[in-house]
Design brief:
8 helices; elongated; 0% strand; mainly alpha
Length: 219
């Protein structure tokens, strides 16, 4: 055997087999937990003091928004003073004041939506509910009743930071849709009850009474 081949053979015999030499493969690391699906946002809670009945809640939203809109002219002078006093450099006062004007516009649109939903629910209800609705409206509006200890600045700050709960619009749309469907079903039922059954036999006309015999002619 050639010296080179013999040396190579001896070298190979002195080393462990490849399977033995290779360290055991590390156990595959457990797959990282798949990222959880985006957590669903927690359901928005009912605003403090608001009714939990959908119709009354929409009425409450109407009242609180109505009170907010009605305060505009009263608080704007103080709002303007606050915005002017604490204005960041380079920021236009007109830009911030426009935000309040846009909120008034959106608020009037939302009032119409709430009114429509309440009217649909009142029409679909089998009993009068407008009285409890009016109470809920007053309850929502009362949040803007400023006590004697509330200064103009504090009222303006509360007004500037207030936002209508998002739940108001979603609940109003659901109430309007549901009430409209209920109203249609009531109409169909009433019409069906008014119509006679299709297979009802026709009523026979009453027989005419027999004619009276003529009185005898005297002789």
């Amino acid at each position: 055997m050639a010296p080179i081949a013999l040396a190579l053979l001896l070298l190979l015999q002195g080393q462990p087999a490849a399977a033995e030499a290779a360290p055991p493969a590390a156990e595959a690391a457990p797959a990282a937990d798949a990222p959880a699906a985006d957590a669903q946002p927690a359901e928005e809670r009912w605003p403090a003091g608001a009714p939990h009945d959908d119709y009354q809640f929409v009425a409450w939203c109407y009242g609180s928004l109505r009170g907010y809109l009605d305060l505009h002219d009263q608080v704007m002078p103080e709002v303007t003073r606050i915005e002017t006093t604490y204005r960041p450099p380079g920021r236009k006062l007109s830009d911030d004041l426009k935000v309040y004007a846009d909120m008034q516009k959106d608020g009037r649109r939302q009032l119409k939506e709430f009114q429509a939903a309440m009217t649909a629910a009142e029409k679909a209800s089998l009993r009068p509910i407008n009285v409890v609705g009016a109470t809920a409206v007053q309850k929502g509006r009362s949040m803007w009743n400023a006590g004697p200890g509330i200064t103009k600045a504090r009222l303006a700050q509360e007004w500037m930071s207030w936002a209508l709960p998002a739940k108001c619009e979603t609940t109003a749309k659901a109430l309007d849709s549901r009430a409209t469907l209920m109203g249609a079903s009531f109409k169909v039922n009433s019409e069906a009850e008014a119509e006679p059954p299709a297979d009802a036999p026709a009523t026979e006309p009453a027989a005419a009474p027999p004619a009276e015999a003529p009185a005898p002619t005297p002789n």
